[in-house]
Amino acid sequence: MYIPFTERYHYTLLYIAVLSGLLLLLLIAFLIRSLSVERRRKREAQHSLRYEHETLTLAISGSSTYVWRLEGEGIICDPHFYDLIRHPRERITLDEIIHFLHPDDRERFYRGYRASENVHTHKGHYRFDFTGGGYEWWELRYSTLPATVSGGKYIITGLLQNIQDVKDHEEELIQARRLAERAELKQSFLNNMSHEIRTPLNAIAGFANLLVYDPELSETEKREYAGIIDTNTKLLLKLVDDVLQLSRMETANMSFDLRRESVRHLLEAVYRTHSVLIKPPLEFIADFPAEDAFVHADRMRLTQVVTNFLNNAGKFTSEGHIRLGYVRLPATREVSIYVEDTGIGIPQEEREMIFARFYKRSEFSQGVGLGLPICKVIVERLGGRIEVKSQVGRGSRFTVVLPCVE
Ligand code: ADP
Q1: How far is the CA of 369 from the centre of ligand 1 (A)?
Q2: What angle do CA 44, 45, 51 make, to 5 degrees?
């Protein structure tokens, strides 16, 4: 009963002490292990982060691509970007970036930036001069992280990539396509030309041969063949003349003598010439209002356009009338000069085509199909336009609309 407690429970206490020691050792071992596991996990995470960063840097370093992030007023950029623009490695403001942007692109850039609050992704091409070596094309892509996701702050993050090479390549392709189109145009022009030249030349050669080698031709036949040769020679001369005129006008090699002209006087002169050429049963009507209109034009060239309209009207109208007139259009301060006929008309789908070179509806119609293309070039150089209204079987109306001068 009087045995001391420590002696009485000597073994029990020893047992507890050993157990506690063991437990402590186990706890320490467990803590050390979890610490080392945690450390290893952290090292691995850091390693993989570094690896990802390095591969990303490697991937974008060769392509002049820079990562950036806009928070509030400041932009945090890829360190290489700071080196490129020779800026200390610290935040840069949006205004400082705008300073590098081409003035013509600023409005578009701001429009995209203002919309970024609602539109969460953006892609645009802008011209920047970051190095002072001239403007180059850059692609700006970014996404907006809403304040709710980015912890209360409104963040825009994205990539800036130099795409000058792509743009250069694009330009080369456009040039190549233009060259190919021009070559094609040239080829079709040459095909048309050789066709248009061959037809009258064959007629001239054929009838000249008949005249020389056929002794039995009557005087009437000889006159008729000589007439055919003459008509075809004129046709050839007109073709050469038209082609030269069109080419000179298109290369702006033809000077226009622009003066203030009275439309009424000009049309009266044209009417006088054509009233001899347009014969009954066709009626030739002049429709000139009392009030004159004035235009800034080359008299000879404008006369050429109206004459071409009248010649065409004569060619394609066998009965009814041809009307020449003008109307003032005070609302737009323009005047419209028109030639109206009651001829065969032009189908809707051909209204555009008649202004193409060498276009003729019928292979057998007179002319080579260069009259209207020449008219179009002249009228455009006079600052006007040509309008066509037509109904098949009922007639056509060709109008030149020109700005009026006081
Ligand atoms: P061209 O120089 O041979 O006269 P244009 O270029 O003046 O040729 O006209 C081209 C074609 O437009 C004509 O062949 C004809 O088919 C059509 N055209 C032009 N004017 C008229 C018209 N007043 N009525 C019907 N067709 C017309």
Answers
A1: 7
A2: 85
